[in-house]
Amino acid sequence: MFYYNVTCHADHSVETKWLTWMKQIHIPEVMQTGCFVECKILKVISPVHIEHGTSYAIQYLYRTPEDFEKYLAEHADILREKTSAEFGNSVHAFRTQLEILAQY
To answer: N or C: which end of the chain has fewer CB within 10 A?
Structure first.
């Protein structure tokens, strides 16, 4: 199993709106692609950049590399464009893929 981790930094001016939008619109759209089996929203608590905004990690669990490749090929660009259209430069993201090696 793998995680697609999207770490987002939201300016304080849009943080509440962005978080609501993520929960009600964006994440449901991502999950509807069928490429992921679970999603978590985590708030970054250290280091804290209070004066500029708040960071969050959105973690999507997927089963196979093929599931993720399908997401990238068929859905990612459209969903990223929607986010950019809604929030512009007020939210910045970087993305990583993580492989689960063990769980305890």
So the answer is: C
Q: Which two tokens stand for residue 91?
A: 């939210």
At residue 3, what are phi and psi to the nearest 5 degrees?
A: -120, 140
Q: What is the pLDDT of residue 49?
A: 63
- Rounded CA separation 11/92 (Å): 9
Residue 8's CB is within 10 A of a number of other CB atoms, namely: 22
**pTM for this one?**
0.92
In this structure, the number of other CB atoms found within 10 A of the CB of residue 71 comes to 19
Count the neighbouring beta carbons within 10 Å of the beta carbon of residue 27: 17
**What are the tokens at 94?**
């970087």
> In the structure encoding, which two tokens stand for residue 23, read together?
């929960």
